[in-house]
Amino acid sequence: MAFVNENYLKLPGSYLFSEIARRVNQFKKENPDADIIRLGIGDVTRPLPPAVVEAMKKAVEEMGSQETFRGYGPEQGYEFLIEKIIDNDFKPRGIELSVDEVFVSDGAKSDTANFQEIFGLDNILAVSDPVYPVYVDSNVMAGRTGMVNARGQFEKIIYLPCTEENGMKPPLPGVRADMIYLCFPNNPTGMTISREELKKWVDYARENRSVILFDAAYEAYIREEGVPHSIFEIEGAREVAVEFRSFSKTAGFTGARCAYTIVPKEVKAYDSSGSAHSLNPLWLRRQTTKFNGVSYPVQAAAAAVFSAEGKKQVRETIDYYMENAGIIRNGLEEAGYRVFGGINAPYIWLKTPGSMKSWDFFDKLMREVNVIGAPGAGFGAHGEGYFRLTAFATRANTEKAIERIRTGL
Ligand code: MLT
User: Fold this and answer.
1) What is the pLDDT of residues 357-404, one digit of tens each?
2) At 375, phi and psi to the nearest 5?
3) Ligand 1 midpoint to CA 202 (Å)
4) Pick from 305, 241, 287: which is nearest to 104 by CA?
5) CATH topology assigned to domain 70-307
């Protein structure tokens, strides 16, 4: 008899974005003529930049020729890409990294989900509430939590409420947390944190010997000065933090798949006898065992993001999405909604009218104006009464969606 991993049974129903897709598909079946606009999952709509496409085509040609064919690549990623990442994303901000501190992967989603594997099961987690559900669900699957309560919160997780009163910034935990997930610019609220505020987290982690799992997948959307792009801009962070980055939302790689994770050699966790272990070789061990690297054409394409044309084209794409974000923000504010985010992030977080429940607002929007968003309650108990829209649609659909919300509800 085969036994299941009972931790999976603790998880409610389906993954948030699968549940959204299920409801939309059902609605479409019942209303085949509905002109649905999707501002739900944060999936990009602009094509890959031309410089990236050229590099990918060239790499595919190389793979088709005897002289230039490549088999397995290094599990950690090709150095030609890692060096570009360091030189472009970190050196200009005064952050020194060595090539073996960068791990190229197929996505920040998989990295944020998998990284917990190298930690013991007795660690206490802290997460923002609302939170990107992958951080929580992956730890539930691993068995690091207890059961879920009626509010959807798991035992052994410290939930840090992000509310209008605290500017949607997670408060430091009152008790010891060992693994702390932070995401800035934030998914789902679109809010950011200042350097001073982030320093408090780094200091907390140093005092408590905790590790911060910092998701910076949206850093390219930061527009304002003074907002840190990387946790490693903060003194001491190399001892206590790892950072996740992605090409998905910057260069349109949601379908191509490429991301990377920074694991400084100084960041450590402890065994039961109190001895310190660097996480870098443990993550390398995990990746070399379970992962065979990102395909050569995709890494070659990612490297082209850092060429002069690539940078210009990516900047244009980000500007395009941020103009969408402005259209959503301003349109909703004019229509009387209370709105957050969308200034340094491609997500707009809004208060539902009349404190309507998030899923009720989801249904209303879908049925009455055929616009799809993401219900705040799907991101946690403190997301109830809120709703997320993404700026990743086309301009025409973004304008149409906001017009429908303004006039049709
Ligand atoms: C989101 O909509 O939150 C993102 O698309 C999720 C992801 O990047 O996996």
Assistant:
1) 999 999 999 999 999 999 999 999 999 999 999 999 999 999 999 999
2) -70, 130
3) 26
4) 287
5) Aspartate Aminotransferase; domain 2 (3.40.640)
